[in-house]
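hiii, so i know i said id send this last week but things got crazy w the move. better late than never?? heres the sequnce for the chain we talked about at the cafe, plus the structure i predicted for it. fair warning i was half asleep when i ran it
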Amino acid sequence: MIITFTANPSIDRTANLSVALERGGVNRIVSVDDGPGGKGINVSRALTLADAPTTAIFPAPDGDPLVQAVKDAGVGFALVETDVRARTNLTVTEPDGTTTKINEPGSPLDEAAQRACMDAILAAAGAGDWVALCGSLPPGPTETWYADMVAELKQAGLEVAVDTSDAPLIALAQDLEAAAPSLLKPNGLELGQLVGADGPAIEAAAENGDFLPAAQAARKLVDRGVSAVLATLGAAGAVLVTADGAWVGNPPPITPVSTVGAGDSSLAGLLLAFTQGLEPAECLRHAVAYGSAATALAGTGVPAPEQVDLQRTRVTELPLD
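okay and structure toks below
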C-alpha cells in the first residue's frame, strides 16, 4: 500500500492558451480543465491508473467539490473532515509548454485537525507500507510539521517519502538525525536548499549534461541518513542516489504540453517501482518515464502505464568517487 498525504489539497484549474501569455494584456483561453489537485492526490491518481494499491488522505469538508473530483477519478481516499473549503489553483499553459501557476494559500488547519490527519495516516497504513507526504503546508501548522510527522511515522515502522519545498523542507533538513525519510524528492532548486548549495547552478549543469553536482549534493543527504534521493531536473532528466550508488535518467523525446504534475508522476513511478522490488536503475527509469509522460499531457493529466515510454528512457550509472 502507498498512502499519500496532501496537507494543502486543491481543485486544479488549467487554462490553455493558443498563443504566448501577454502579461498585462487580454489573454483568451481556448480550453479549461478542472481536476482534483495537490501533489499527493496526483501521485495517487497515477498509482490508481497503474492498478497499484493506494489511499489518498487529505483535509476538506464533506461535500466539497474536491471530494467529488477525487471520487470521479476513481481514487481510494480517506477524508479528514474540516469546515473550510479546499482552495482552487490556477495554471496557465502556453503552446510551447510554458506553465504559469497561481496558487491560493489554502485553508487553515488547527492543532486538532493536524492530529486527525496523522491519525488517519496511521489508521490507513500497515507496517512496511509507504507514506508520501506531499506539497506545501496550509496556514496553521508550524514549518516543522513534516519533520515531526516523519519521526512519528518512522517509529510506526513505515517507509516515508517527502516532496515539499521552502521552509518545511529546510526544517526537515535541519532535523535529519531524528527525521531522515526513506526518500526525498527535490528538484534542483530544492536540492540546493537542502544542502546549502547553488540550486540554479545545479540545474544549469544538468541542462548542459553535467549531473555530477546534483548527485554530489544528493549524496550529502544520503550520508545524513536519507535512504534515497530522487532529484528531478526538468527536461534534462533526474538523478537517483542511494548508499549503493548514483544513476542518471534521461527522458525520451516528447512534445511538452504542460509541466503540471510531472514531478508528482515521477514520484508515483518511483514508488511503484520500489514496491515491485526493482533495482535502483529500473526504479529511476520508471520515475523519469512517468514524469516525461505527464509533461506530454494537457492540464493536470497523469499518465497511464500504456503512455509511459520505458524503452526509450535511458539510465546510466554515475561514478561519484
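btw The first helix runs from residue 39 to 49. thought thatd interest u
miss u guys!!
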